[in-house]
Amino acid sequence: RDVLAGIVKKSCAAFRSDEVTPLVKVDGHYVLELFHGPTFAFKDVALQMLGNFFEYFLSTGSNGGRLAVLGATSGDTGSAAIYGLRGKKGVDCIILFPNGRVSEIQERQMTTVPDDNIHCVAVDGTFDDCQDIVKASFADKEFRDHVKLGAVNSINWCRVLAQTTYYFWSYLRVTDLEKDVKEVNFSVPTGNFGDILAGYYSKRMGLPVGDLIVATNENDILHRFFTKGEYHREGINKTISPSMDICVSSNFERYLYHLAGDDPSQLASWMSSFESTGKLTVSGELLNKAQSDFKSAKANTDNTLETIKTYHAKDDYMLCPHSAVGVSAVDQLDTKNSATVCLATAHFAKFGDACSMAVTPLPEIPKELSQLWSMETRSSNCPNDAKVVQGFMKRVIEERMEKHKKRDERKKFVKNLVLVSAAVGVVAVVVSAIRRR
User: Fold this and answer.
1) What pLDDT is recorded for position 431?
2) Residue-wise pLDDT tens digits, 400-426
3) At what angle do helices 104-111 and 76-85 cross, to 10 degrees?
4) How many Å apart are CA 34 and CA 53, to the nearest integer?
């Protein structure tokens, strides 16, 4: 228990707010600010903790004391993982991101980190392509065992577990402030389904949650499922909320398992059909059950920009494009009240180009972000090919291990040289003393 408490305390110490994730009331509802961590995005909550868990378990000799973390990012996971794992002993962190499909500041947050255990890779494809490479690599047992592969995306259960904490935290804060509120609604900007899945599990654990609102942008596969029962794969639209530009949500499979009555054979059948046809359709009681678990809404670019503009003009409050999607969903579903919490998943300054389409001039951005433009960047490029990426990983890991081996040998040589020199000095002093006698 003491070790766990120490890891949690160390993880929370990385945040700029004493409350870690402060809750503020805006326009009659609450906003949970999840962007006070090192990379100004909600992923910091889980990934600071995950990085410290990795460090602890590797220090005990687990996994041979070595781990190669492979992650895919649509923007925020990558930088949060990098800041959580930079400099960690025994860890190599390889982050794949879709070339040209993350904001410039998101890319700079990743590529300006100089630690030699961090490797950023621009992949010629979409986020879904990056995610497929990660999944293929975990399915390749020979490769997985050779590099001692570990996960940083929300396929790692620790990610979802850590994210449940702020649902409990915000529920307790709301009910402290609003004595008549018994259940709290949550509106969550949703791409890969991990953040809202944490809310779903919180509710299953007994947290008094009312509505869980799935808020999507134009990439609305989840909204189409919860309104029509159609989880049908389509092309990815490039939007002003790029972290949600996903057409296959990897965590959604976890929810489908429960929708199938915790029946793994039914889930396997659904996913096999989806892989071959790109379509998964439910109706009747199953659709009714899904709609009782989640509500949903879709906010297009116009909705998003109007929400950013309105909140800044009326309340002097800046929303990032993703957070604005969640707020727009609350407006559409008429659940804007003191029992509703909208998750603000990133600081607006991470998406300055998009926000400036609604608000000019923009408020001053934090110095931690503005200084990125003067820092050197480094990254690599790979085609959309799992084998090429795996080859890259093997090479950079082996090169770093060899480099550290030589460094350790030099340190050992210098240490031994110092010891020999010290011994010679002692002998010389003793001889000199004997001669004086």
Assistant:
1) 77
2) 988 877 776 677 777 777 777 777 777
3) 20
4) 21
Give the span between the Cα atoms of 212 and 296, in whole angstroms: 8
Q: Which two tokens stand for residue 200?
A: 């779903």
Percentage of the chain lying above the pLDDT 90 cut: 86
The string of pLDDT tens digits covering residues 315-328 is 999 999 999 999 99
Other beta carbons less than 10 A from residue 271's beta carbon: 14
Cis peptide before 189 (omega within 30 of 0): no
Characterise 251 by phi-psi region: left (phi > 0), alpha (psi -120 to 50), beta (else): alpha
Residues 196, 205: Cα–Cα separation, whole Å = 14
**Whether 141 is catalytic:** no
Residue 382's pLDDT band (boundaries 50, 70, 90)?
A: very high
pTM score of the predicted model: 0.87
Indicate the angle between helix axes 252-259 and 194-204, nearest 10 degrees: 40
Q: Give the Cα separation of 274 and 233 in Å (integer).
A: 9
Mean pLDDT of the region 335-361: 97
Give residue 158's identity as a one-letter amino acid code: C
Cα atoms found within 13 Å of the Cα of residue 383, Cβ hemisphere only: 3
d(CA 309, CA 355): 9
> What pLDDT is stored for residue 405 in this prediction?
76
C-alpha 245/C-alpha 314 separation (Å) is 29
Measure the CA dihedral 135/12/341/175, to 10°: 130
* pLDDT in the model for residue 155: 77
CA distances from 282 to 4, 218, 347 (A): 41, 22, 37
Backbone φ and ψ for 236, nearest 5 degrees, come out as -90, 130
What 3 state SS string does 252-268 have?
HHHHHHHHCCCCHHHHH
Q: How far apart are CA 85 and CA 107, in angstroms?
A: 17
Q: Has residue 72 got a pLDDT over 90? A: yes
pLDDT over 80 (residue 184): yes
Q: Tell me which of 10, 43, 89, 406 is the catalytic residue.
A: 43
Q: Which two tokens stand for residue 7?
A: 């890891």
Amino acid at 190: T
